[in-house]
Design a protein that fits this description.
The chain is mostly helical. Helices cover about 80% and strands about 0% of the residues.
Length: about 210
């Protein structure tokens, strides 16, 4: 038991490092928007796919950051396995600016094959993020000793199921790109909006469990 305690540590350092990665990744997104040299209004309107791709990526990072903060507020201790899983999540977040730029460029200048490839690459990165997020929630749902309370275990299970459901639109976006690339981009915008709405709702399981006796 003493050796087990030595392997566990406060999650605060991991959370602070994660916040820094989220902030840097969100900042890097705007660098790919570019500045038109002339005919500002015409070129800005023509580059609308870039702005929509930026919106999708920014909302994705924002929704992950909000849920990440909520998740870590429920953690009492963290072990090496959770640190590695969290690094997998941060890997996807840090890489996200690149497929965002690829997606924007393909919708603006590329042919249909380029657009399908760009949507697929964005989808793969999104699935890496979703898989790491599901791994975090799934692991914590089976490790109640790392959590603040029993209610937090219920939340982890619910969050795990939510992540699995929201991977479906991400997977569907790839074949959809063959016939409607803009529709795929719409799905990438819709998924983080769903998470943002979900994170703004009060957590009900805490109340239910507290009265279960």
């Amino acid at each position: 038991m003493p050796r087990l305690r030595q392997r566990l540590s406060s999650p605060r350092r991991v959370e602070s490092f994660s916040d820094a990665v989220f902030a840097i990744s969100a900042t890097l997104l705007v660098l790919d928007l570019g500045i038109p040299r002339d005919h500002y209004l015409t070129r800005i309107l023509a580059d609308w796919p870039g702005f929509v791709a930026y919106l999708a990526a920014f909302l994705t990072i924002a929704s992950i950051w909000l849920h990440h903060h909520t998740l870590f507020s429920r953690i009492h201790r963290i072990d090496a396995g959770l640190v590695v899983t969290n690094l997998g999540l941060l890997l996807g977040v840090a890489v996200l600016p690149w497929p965002t730029a690829l997606l924007a460029a393909s919708l603006r200048d590329g042919d249909r094959d380029d657009q399908v490839v760009a949507v697929a690459v964005y989808g793969i990165v999104s699935l890496v993020v979703a898989g790491s997020w599901a791994a975090l929630s799934g692991t914590l749902s089976r490790r109640p000793g790392l959590l603040q309370s029993a209610a937090d275990q219920f939340w982890m299970r619910a969050n795990f199921r939510t992540v699995l459901w929201t991977t479906l639109p991400v997977v569907a976006a790839v074949p959809l790109a063959i016939v409607a690339p803009v529709g795929s981009l719409g799905l990438y915008v819709a998924v983080p909006i769903f998470f943002l709405v979900l994170s703004s709702r009060p957590t009900e399981p805490d109340t239910d469990i507290s009265h279960s006796g």
